[in-house]
Amino acid sequence: MNQKETKGRTAADILILLGMLALLSAICRLWPLLLLMILGIFVAALRVLCNRPEKIEVLTPVPYLPEPKPNPTVKDLEQMAYSVMQTRITELVALDYSEARWIWETPEAMQEFMTGGEVFILLNRAGGYRRAKVLYQNLQVAGIDYYPDKEPEPVFSEPVGEDGLDEEPKENNYELLAFEWSEAHILELNERCNEAIGQGKSEILIPLEELPSPESWQDICRELERAGLERVKIVTDGITIIL
Q1: Taking the model in full, what pTM does it have?
Q2: Which residue would you say has higher pLDDT here, 165 or 79?
């Protein structure tokens, strides 16, 4: 605090004191003393205004020092080296095959790197190469040795019958399919029939979009007749139920 601020503070204290004395003189009706007090208050107010500080200094807080970073551990260094190796492998593969993608052959690749073992990768879209060996020394990738894909396995023909001829395919049986379809839709068909009768219609159509393969329609008609829908016939667009 400088000298000007000190004088201003003292004048402010005197002004407060004179104000209290003036109030006391007014209560006691000491009019001559009150006039002196008013004059003193006026002088003290002028001194307060004259000694007012020109600007207010704002103290900026001192910034804290950043916490020191902990020293990297051996595991951190190994992880960094492993990350650099992966980036280097990606660069080498992209140089040879720009559209190729690769993954590690085993999930223990990092352990193999650190112990000096052999490390392999699997490739895709690499011009026929599906496997490659990573060549490295002192945890630095030196190159990639590509291995060609395996020879295709021979394709064996289907077994033939006892007479040396292929067995004829068995004829498909649609009775089970028709039974399952009828059981799943019979309640819905009864409701649709009742609604059609209420609307004065004489028949309803089951469109082919709701039916299975056309080979099963004859069996479906038989199952519907067995379920109580007596007049059922096959048409071009599906199956018609005559009410």
Answers
A1: 0.36
A2: 79
